[in-house]
Amino acid sequence: MRLKDKVAIITGASGGIGEVTAKKFALEGAKVVIVDLKKEDVDRTVLDLQRIGCEAIGFDADVTKREQVDQFINDTVAYFGRIDAVINNAGITQDAQLIKMTEEQWDRVIDVNLKGVFNVAQSAAKVMIEQKNGVILNASSVVGLYGNFGQTNYAASKFGINGMTKTWARELGKYGIRVNAIAPGFIATSMTQKMPEKVLEMMKNKSPLKRMGSPEDIANGYAYLASDEASFITGAVISIDGGAVI
């Protein structure tokens, strides 16, 4: 169990990649903190983890609200005594071409995907600095490496994630804190299941492996980067995309 007794906070953890990551961390022996917007979803996910023997707690919180972030960070430390890893998974999309994108669409995506990650990382980093140890993992995207049609706001947020990841790795390394990001490619989730078959085939064909990734593929990457096996990896943005961009 590569994460035995490590305390991990996962945002956006009651569905999709976040929920699968939470279960992966639980199976690897971690104590897991679930953070998401809706209390009923948080409670359901915590119960699922507890059923498989994980020591898990949860908080319904909005990562864009700093006082709520500070509260669940402080409550986690009060309950578990430490924070070993934070996975900044919470994120949204509100797509539109440049000339059609509204100010509200821009502001909301930047607020959640960029400010939310900043809020959680800054609050958690203060705890990790005192511990002289910790791991911060950020959810980037291949869109944050190459851009994508109709995703000005999302691409900007993910390019920003990459920059923050590298900057924090430089700043926090002296405290024993590692900071990395994962850039997923086309991943099969409940959202993609609603897409037209033609679009799904296009996504599959972009990969030399001729398939979409699974949430488990991303969760495995987070579990590795959070473990001591990755103790000399920091400042990296690792693509898990099935070779879609080569």
From TrEMBL:
GO term, biological process aspect, one: fatty acid biosynthetic process
CDD domains cross-referenced by the UniProt entry: BKR_SDR_c (cd05333)
Binding, NADP(+): N89, Y154, A155, A156, S157, K158, I187
Record bears the keyword Lipid biosynthesis: yes
PROSITE patterns xrefs: ADH_SHORT
The keyword NADP appears for this protein: yes
UniProt protein name: 3-oxoacyl-[acyl-carrier-protein] reductase
Annotated organism of origin: Bacillus benzoevorans
Highest classification ranks of the organism: Bacteria, Bacillati, Bacillota, Bacilli, Bacillales
